[in-house]
Structures are given as structure tokens and as C-alpha cells.
Amino acid sequence: MSDTENNPTAGTPRDKIIQVINELRTYIQQDGGDLEFIDFTDEGIVKVRLHGACVGCPGAAMTLKNGVEARLKQIVPEVVAVEKVD
Description:
The chain is of the alpha+beta class. Helix content is 44%, strand content 23%. Strands 1-2-3 form a 3-stranded mixed β-sheet. Helix 2 (13-30) packs antiparallel against helix 3. The termini are far apart.
């Protein structure tokens, strides 16, 4: 196992983002949805795609902002925002 697999604060910002998203996916999958990492832009935007029950869910936007984005900003200071893509 690499350092980034054991420690979400190790590695590049992209590595950290992927690690945090993979950890959060477990919780999202328990509700029938899923989250896919798409990109991390030079402007600090994390782009994700929603799957399953998350598609069309009225609470998905809140989950992205208050859950995913908040957690990513805690671990990866380079993150400015999280946006969903279709």
C-alpha cells in the first residue's frame, strides 16, 4: 500500500482528492448512489459525476456542497469548489 492509501494528507492534491472521494463513496453507495471523480482543474474546481439514486435526487446538491465539498476543503486546501458534470 502506498502512503496516499494510508494517509489522505499524503501525495498530490489530485491524489488526496481521489482518496477522499473514494472514502465518501462508501456512504453514498449505502443510499443507492455513487460518485465518480472526473477532473481537478487549475482553478481548484473538482468535477464529479453522480450515478444511481443521486441522479435527480433533490438532496444531491446539498450532499455535494455540505458533504463532499466541505470534506475536500478540510483535507485539500487547494480545492475551491465541487461541481457536478453530466
